[in-house]
Amino acid sequence: MDGSDGEFRSPPFSRLTERISGPRSRAWDITDRAAALERQGRRIIHLGIGDPDFDTPPAIVDAAINQLGAGRTHYAPVPGETDLRAAIAAEYSSRCDSRFDFEQVVIFPGAQTALFATLMCLSGPGDEVILLEPYYATYEGVACGGGADVVTVALSEETNFALDVDRIARAITSRTRVILANSPGNPTGAVFSEKSWRELVGLCLKHDIWLVSDEVYSCLTFDSPFFSPLEIPGARNNVAVISSVSKSHAMTGWRLGWTITPGPLARHLDVLSQSMVFGVSQFTQDAVTWALRNPPAEVESMRRAYKSRRDLLCDELEKNSRLKVHRPGGGMFVMVDVSALGCDGARFADELLDREGIAVVPGFAFGDSAENCVRIGYLHDEAVLKKAADKIARFVDGFVS
User: Which residue of 61, 209, 215, 374 has the fewest CB atoms within a 10 Å radius of its CB?
Assistant: First the structure.
């Protein structure tokens, strides 16, 4: 209180939230509005936020319940349980045909936290972080969180958002500290080739730059194999990988992700985690350890289902000449350019929700170059997706610019 008019005035805040509250922070406004419409009784088909309709495989749930009953409800080691870290290291050792040690792995409550922590450890005021656009909506805030400046490199729609190393090279300056790449991409679904990864790794080594690889969709590739920069032995001192079980095992709500990095960076992440999260629940880590060592059959069946869903949704959307559909090579989303309608993605998404009850994410969430696009998730079974595609077709046919 100020003693005169009774008005409460807060002391000043830090500038952290100012740095991370750019236009991308409004990415989920459409999802919030869809939820409000549902509370009013509207039926909404959610094709926006990446939380699919699959439930966690029952055997993983049982593993967690068993560990709860066994009293695994205490503090875990800050960098994570050794068994889980060893299981993750073993998986990457097998995939990359080279040995990774458990000390290179740090566990976090979700890949989002892991990504934030990694960028905080690698960049700060005066540094630059290169983002490949379109990029996931939180990347801009994550890069700005520690005070770094964002430099965007737009990947071309004409090449279906393939990695363009020459364009990235032209964006590098003496202040560049990190390049953040995502394959399969969110929102584009682009799967970067081994050749382009090797070129990008060579560029990072040449300029002494960190390459952060977000691999949360690595389990969902449909037309070509997944390749990680960790498979390039000479790159490992420059590469940090972020991943999780959220998509691969339908465990979005369990909030468990990890980093696998060179040892010195892992130690920095451990120190930061002490102040930020102080560990992840024991029983959650135990369940994920079980899942990695005993892969449930549902994991592969979900991957096949996503491919079938992608094919159906893209086939249906491609029937309309006013939509430019970028068929994804992986992940769970398709980017659709709506500029032929004479509108941007924000207007398209708002009116689609109001008129047809379908929630999608407007392209501005993924960078300026995507503002004429929307991201549509194939997050439901094929019957629901067919219904949604029919509604979108009706909406497009009746759209007046």
Answer: 61
